[in-house]
Amino acid sequence: MDVLTYLLSVLAACANAVSSVLQRKANREMPPELALRPKLILELLRQPVWLAGVAGVIIGFLLQAAALDQGELSVVEPILVCELPLTLFLAAWVFHAPLRLREAGAAVGMAAGLAGLLFFLAPSAGQAEEVPWYAWLLASVATMAATAAAFEWARRGRIARDQREGSARRAAGFGMAAGCTFGLTAAFIKAATVRYNEGGLAGVFTGWELYCMVIAGVLGMFLLQSAMHAGRLVAAQPALTLSDPLVSVLWGVTVFGEIVRGGLYLLLATASGVLLAASVVVLSRSPAIGEKETRHVRGG
């Protein structure tokens, strides 16, 4: 595994973190009645802060694609979990919320859990170029079913009248739905890089993977805006950050045939995953993401 893969993945996480904070800052100014309406996007297009956030999404996407060209799904996507602590620190600066020792310790625990997960699993290359059509179909249907379930759970939640407070259920549900869709998008990105390596740009544009990637990416962006509009980052970001790599790792192992170590290594990897998840829970409760200080940044 090339060091470049890790570097590109971390840079993608940085871009995503910047994007999340900027998009939430723009979305919280939007009225509640725009929830799940295309007009929300039209209104956001007038916000320079939101456009900067979208630029962050594009940069993160390109960096992620470059990382997937170098490495495996089950390696690249878990590294993107670093987006959550990065978002925490950036939100603390943008929203003027002080960080506490608990958050710093959780960030360290999260890094340790992620490092242990990658080290103990030690994923090896699969056969992304030899996936049968029925595997693509079944895995895509399963992913979209999970997306639909998270979306429906969120949709049934109460719409908060105060956008500064938001609805935790709707933000988390739409965030999870967006994460599942972005995980599917990552699978299509990986397949598109295989097309590129085999036939160059001509191979990419004549393959079906590129167009599925675009459709999934657009849907993911809509769901992401719905999450950012529905409530605080404290609810949306953990669901988004964890569901994306989880779906991607499942794709890597079950569809692309990426091999991970078993036995004691699997047990240690599980313990690392528990540490990672526990750290995420601590970070998700941070007031730095909670935006309690929003009155200080209105219009700024």
UniProtKB/TrEMBL annotation:
Domain of life where this protein originates: Bacteria
Chain ranges passing through the membrane: 6-23, 44-66, 78-97, 104-121, 133-151, 171-189, 201-224, 236-257, 263-283
Gene3D superfamilies found in the cross-reference section: 1.10.3730.20
InterPro entries in the record: EmrE-like
Entry protein name: DMT family transporter
Keywords, comma-separated and alphabetical: Membrane, Transmembrane, Transmembrane helix
Organism expressing this protein natively: Streptomyces glomeratus
SUPFAM superfamilies: Multidrug resistance efflux transporter EmrE
NCBIfam families: DMT_1
